[in-house]
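# nightly structure sweep
# worker-07 picked up a monomer target from the shared queue
# config: single-sequence mode, recycle default, output format = structure tokens
# input follows
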Amino acid sequence: MRKMRAWLLRFGGLFRKERRDQEIAAEMESHLQMHIADNLRAGMSAREARREALMKLGGVEQTKEIYRQRRGLPLLETLFQDLRYAGRMLLKNPGFTVVAVMIMALGIGANTAMFSVVNAVLLKPLAFADPDRIVTLGSLWKGQPGHGNVSAPDFHDWHDQSTAFECMAYYDDGDVAVAAGPVAEYAHVAEVTPEFFHVFQVEPAVGRVFTTGKTKQGSSGAVIISSSYSASHFGGNSNALGHVVRLGGRALDIVGVMPYGFHFPNKTEMWFSANTIYPETSSRSGHNYLVVGRLKSGVSLEQAQAQMTTIGTRLEEKYPDSNKGKNVAVTRMRDEMVSNFRLTLYVMLAAVGLVLLTACANLANMLLAKAVARTREIAIRAAVGATRSRIVRQLITESMVMALLAGAVGVLLAIWGARVLVALAPRDVPRLIETGIDGNVLAFAFGVSVVASLLFGLAPALQVLRIDLNKSLKQGMARAAGGSIADRMPGALVVGEIAVSLMLLAGAGLFMKSFLALQSVALGFRPEHVLVAESSVPASDLESARRGTRFYKDLLPQLRALPGVLDAGATMAPPGNVHSNGGYWIDHLPQEFSVSAPQAVFSVVAPGTFATLGIPLKLGRDFHESDTYDAPFAAVINEALAKSAFPGQDPMGHAIYCGLDSMNPMKIVGIVGDIRQYGPAREPSPEIYMAY
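# output follows
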């Protein structure tokens, strides 16, 4: 307690230094006068008495300094002194200071902006309760990398047979036309099973979630909307309840509004209960859904994976026609969300780190030149008693002040830079909306500033350690012995800058080469002058499917008749948006399988769609208006599937099976060119086109 009180008194003395110095001076003067009085009584003259008194005290200023150290906090006082001196030196050379701060601010700002994206996408925990317990479940095929979507029957078996999960749900999302009044507009909507919101342990801000019972097709429709959609269309959360929106040809009642910030998946604005508008695909080969689950408390990811592997093996044995070679992959949701972007983001962060190193090297050379100009000043300070460590500390303090100023400016630049990165980033980067300047980002900026100050402050500090004081005082300049570290450092810094710059230039060149190469890759279809409009026609049963066929049969001729329209078509999803995929079989469905079925993309198109998109017909015919549900089923395949399934053969007339709608055989009537459904960086996938 006594030590704490003494420390507090010393700390308080820092803020009344003048008064403390006056007290010390008065006390010293009192002691001096007492010694002088004693000497006068001993018979000394006044001059001699004062001289003897000063000698006995050991020097007034030295004694004052000793008392200051005993009554104050020397380290803090020295730091404040160094900071004041550093501020004066920076103000003395404003041009140098501005240039140096801006060089470092650009490097720190670039790193901070990039780190804000990395922090939001990779490092932040998910904004849900117990996020590490939220996992994704996907279909895992033996001998194939990664995992994919899930069929509805598989999901229900997983849900009913597993005990490792508190809850499990599937969802499917996309942009569709929604009418929240007289005008229809696009909105991002998700079809979810009732336990979806329980997985994330989130409740509506107002209203309720869907009922937990299995939703029956054709039941009364309900929809839950996001807080942002409620604010923009209904003026607030409470006002939205009871209103109706039209989606997929159905009128749905708004029964709940989610709290602000909840938008999973992919900035979703509406959630509706599965199987109320679009029927579930009953085939186990139709992998149309994504699955999420919440682990029970105390259940590890490994335990859940082991249980799901057992269930997957059981389903493989029970349903060999669709599940042979297929199992289950369980992954933490955060890892699943960022798996495609982790390496790219870390590479980009490393690249801007190299930019910062280059800025540090530039500034170190500038400070070396400045240190040479200040050599005489430094030598004089050393001559009057300053130790080399004291001078080095002063120079590092100057670098630190400069770096912190640069860090403050860099954070301001990072706020703008982060917005630019978010605007330029691909839409599918997860959690990008969470990018911002928070405590972690500010701590990163501070750490980068400190490290940078040490990096560029090291060069002049090493220069000071090699100063020849005699030469400095006599000639006004300091040169270290030939071949010293200080002599070699400018050259080493320049070499390092050139090496780092060449690395960055080479990386940028490779990036541009790859970008230009991807730009020149033929996508397989013609996107120019193609407009996309969306119409939702539910096909909950055979009769509604027939009505949908008649709808497009009437719509497309009218669109083609519009002025300026060359052609029109309809498709389940435009190129580059894979809606469904799964296994296929040629000519017959075997009773048992030794390997898993080959995979293909499933697409549904109307007659004339290939011509509208500029997809060339290589062999056979396009779909006809007569290709209806009542006629023998027809299919068109792409060249990639023809090459893989019919090497050296003519595919025309063969039967092909897939599980999108039914397992009925489809006669191959045409072959079209390949399109790159997964982007220009990947080879075309086998694809089966089916008639609407």
